[in-house]
Amino acid sequence: MHPNTVMLAVVLLGNLMLPFTTAQNEPKINASDQIILSVDSPKPVTLVCNLTTAHTPHKESFWMKNGQEISNTRTEHANTAYRINKPRADDSGEYMCVYTFETAPNANATIEVKATPAITGHKRSENKNEGENAMLYCKSVGYPHPTWTWRKVDGTSYTEIDNSTGRVFITNRDNYTELNIVNLDINTDPGVYECNATNAIGNTAQTTILRVRSNLAPLWPFLGVLAEIIILVVIIVVYEKRKRPDDILDDDEPAGPMKTNSTNNHKDKNIRQRNTK
Ligand SMILES: *[C@@H]1O[C@H](CO)[C@@H](O)[C@H](O)[C@H]1NC(C)=O
Ligand SMILES: *[C@@H]1O[C@H](CO)[C@@H](O)[C@H](O)[C@H]1NC(C)=O
Ligand SMILES: *[C@@H]1O[C@H](CO)[C@@H](O)[C@H](O)[C@H]1NC(C)=O
Ligand SMILES: *[C@@H]1O[C@H](CO)[C@@H](O)[C@H](O)[C@H]1NC(C)=O
Ligand SMILES: *[C@@H]1O[C@H](CO)[C@@H](O)[C@H](O)[C@H]1NC(C)=O
Ligand SMILES: *[C@@H]1O[C@H](CO)[C@@H](O)[C@H](O)[C@H]1NC(C)=O
What we know:
The chain is of the alpha+beta class and 277 residues long. It is 27% helix and 40% strand. The protein contains three helices and 17 strands. It has helices at residues 3-25, 220-252, 257-276, and strands at residues 28-31, 35-36, 45-53, 58-65, 68-69, 79-84, 93-101, 107-114, 118-122, 125-129, 134-141, 147-154, 157-161, 168-173, 176-181, 191-198, 203-213. A five-stranded mixed sheet has the order 2-8-7-4-5, with no helix packed on it. Strands 10-17-16-12-13 form a five-stranded mixed sheet, with no helix packed on it. A four-stranded antiparallel sheet has the order 9-11-15-14, with no helix packed on it. The radius of gyration is 41 Å and the shape is rod-shaped. Residues 6-23, 258-265 and 267-277 have low confidence and may be disordered. The structure holds 2-acetamido-2-deoxy-beta-D-glucopyranose (NAG) (6 copies). One 2-acetamido-2-deoxy-beta-D-glucopyranose is lined by residues 98, 106, 108. It comes from Parambassis ranga (Indian glassy fish). Its main location: membrane. InterPro entries: Ig-like_dom, Ig-like_dom_sf, Ig-like_fold, Ig_sub, Ig_sub2. It is found in: Cell membrane. This is Neuroplastin b isoform X1.
């Protein structure tokens, strides 16, 4: 064989080997599959990562949730586990085990922990005057982040709400939704509003009652007092009108059954007064 051919073969072989050898040097992590939390009947879950191959000995490992290191999870073992004893929707998220090495970059594996969203904040009611603006919101925990919808509930029927009326605006962030209604209409806007969070695992909803008061409402206490005064005046006037003719009759009428009655009444009154003394 020609020496050049041998050289060529060696170079070719080297090039072919190169990706293979680097791939073999890459650390390999065997991690748990994704986990779906059943929040209704919580069972402990354990996330596991095993470092199966590594180019150099690893230093230590730790766990992260949503990009933040979880404290007190650093160990020196090649196999590491993170246990959630009583899983709640809040515990769902993107978990990651990270291995550190003396002379090589970190290696990591991601485990998705998913749960039905739970709404952790909303208004029970919102009370406004007509013409004012209302702001309703809902916020959630639960991974993956939900898609949000709003509807106005009327008994068993409902109307989906969107931006199309020009008076209602919905803004959504990952785990937060806000419904703004401007220039409140006392005829169409009061009612029960429901926010609905839906992700791949499930959905959940919460309601807010929106009350809209008439602009005359602040006048009502004043009108009440006014009505009381009017009623009092009417009673006094009527009483006076009925009393005066009686007195006149009493004075003018000669002795008779009526007169006796009224004197008896006076006597009764005197007795009663004496008794109370
Ligand atoms: C990874 O772990 C699973 C068990 O959880 C096992 O069946 C599988 O063989 C492991 N793979 C490797 C490459 O170690
Ligand atoms: C990790 O290793 C442990 C024992 O060393 C084994 O029981 C477990 O199934 C492994 N899990 C994975 C995901 O490789
Ligand atoms: C996880 O590994 C990827 C490359 O596989 C790297 O880009 C990323 O920065 C690592 N993340 C952490 C938190 O170590
Ligand atoms: C909502 O999501 C943001 C980022 O997407 C995060 O910073 C915040 O902690 C989350 N809040 C809740 C209650 O999950
Ligand atoms: C509704 O309108 C608001 C404000 O103009 C905007 O930020 C939002 O993205 C709109 N929402 C939808 C679902 O179109
Ligand atoms: C929430 O919305 C989803 C998707 O539109 C629907 O299937 C579900 O019935 C709604 N849930 C509630 C409680 O309204």
